[in-house]
Amino acid sequence: MLYIFNLLIRSHWAIENKLHWTLDVGFSEDASRKRAGNASQNYSVLLKIALNLLKNEKTEKQGIKGKRLKAGWDNKYLLKVLKIKV
To answer: What is the sign, positive or negative, of the torsion defined by CA atoms of 46, 62, 28, 22?
Structure first.
């Protein structure tokens, strides 16, 4: 029983660590200096939305950070990530 409980805890933390690592590497979340009011929570929600949009975009074969930078440079790719048809 204790073994199963340990596995559940480890799997939960693996998911948490993977998400945090992706947000930190792809978006430099740890370097963020947002502290006033609800700014940090609001920014965190926006980052998670952006992360999900980038993960769902499958045509580009690169990491989240590369996709994010490409979306910043290429408006056509940004519209593809946002699923907006022109």
So the answer is: positive
- Label residue 28 left, alpha or beta by phi (over 0 means left) and psi (-120 to 50 means alpha): left
Distance between CA atoms of 76 and 83, rounded to whole angstroms?
A: 10
Q: What are phi and psi of 41, to 5 degrees?
A: -70, -45
Q: Taking the model in full, what pTM does it have?
A: 0.73
Token pair listed for 65: 């950070």
The pair of structure tokens assigned to 39 is 């700014």
57 Rama class: left (phi>0) / alpha (psi -120 to 50) / beta:
beta
Q: Shortest CA distance to 70 belongs to which of 20, 61, 22? A: 61
Q: Would you give per-residue pLDDT tens digits along the chain (86 residues)? A: 667 777 777 776 666 667 777 887 777 777 777 778 888 888 888 988 999 999 999 998 999 989 999 999 999 999 999 999 87
